[in-house]
Amino acid sequence: MSTKNKKIIILIMGTNEKTDPFFYREYKECILETWAKNLPENIQVIYYQGGNETKFENNILTLACEDDLKWTYKKTYLALHYINRNLDFDFIFRTNTSTYINTYLLNLFINNIYDEKKYYGADLYSLSEACAPYPLSIYRRGNGILYSKNDIVNLLHNGICLIYQGICDDIALDNILNSYQIRKSLENNTKYIENHSGWPHSWYKCVDKIFDTNHQISNYNTSNKYDLCITTTLKRYRERDKEFEIYHEFHNLISNLKYRPEIEIIEEMKRYSDNPDVFLGSVIGYIDYDKWKKFDRNLLYLMEISNKASDDDEYWKYKEIQGRFLDFKK
User: Fold this and answer.
1) Is the peptide bond prior to 133 cis by the omega test (within 30 degrees of 0)?
2) How far apart are CA 262 and CA 1, in angstroms?
3) 201-242 pLDDT per residue, tens
4) I need a labelling partner for 187 at 20 to 30 A (CA). Which of 2, 139, 228, 266 fits?
5) What are the CA-CA distances from residue 135 to residues 70, 139, 162, 180, 316 (Å)?
6) Using CA of residue 231, residue 135, residue 306, residue 275, what is the dihedral sign?
């Protein structure tokens, strides 16, 4: 069991207070008052936002770029570029303001489970409409993406082409790294293999109604495995203002957790990491990675486009076939 902690920068995407005060307020009133209040010495938190000029003050990184959803990849690319040139780190952990980070478990995971051949994330997505670079390719949702120093260098080198494409950053980021792996396989005449992995992730009171999502660790309301979860989503999808209260409530829960021996935690985290869940849409839910790899891609695509939520643009695009293919679990 390794005990030497790596230098980690937790990079939190937000917006300038003038652009949208919600995210800046959540950073100040929730993150800095809960999980980031007493950080381990090896971890630094940086909040990044768009603005008129590039500057780094009081752990807030302002980039000279747009500050809206369309240009999140450009903002993230510029943030990674600035940090790579100016700061010391072993890993960058990209997240957002509505995600609670258990830094104790993060250190435990990196020191004892991390494999440099894999790409780790909190929530793995495989969607028909998200091309990274192909439809159904796995990408890591922006609530938790782990990058090594080598990953960052590789991403910056290969990711210039997408800066002005107006693509959401989590899809763009793994588009780049997946494309790199595919090019390597072509050069070496080897078969391209998906090499994503994850860590235990959970949700807390994101919705009021409890329903089965097929996730191994948690539903969208609660979990009995918070002592394993590096990341927990606290986003109230339809009542965002309630997050401020929920944040502090959850922090109190985590502060009073009684952890099992570290060797048991590491073993269980690794079991999940070896076969994490993959998200296929809010109607279908999750399947585990091993099943996803074996699933016929044509059938998976058909099942996804015919099982979209009614508030999804894809629902109306394929309205005539919605609900026609429901044998997913068979």
Assistant:
1) yes
2) 9
3) 999 999 998 888 999 999 999 999 999 999 999 999 889 999
4) 139
5) 20, 10, 17, 16, 18
6) negative
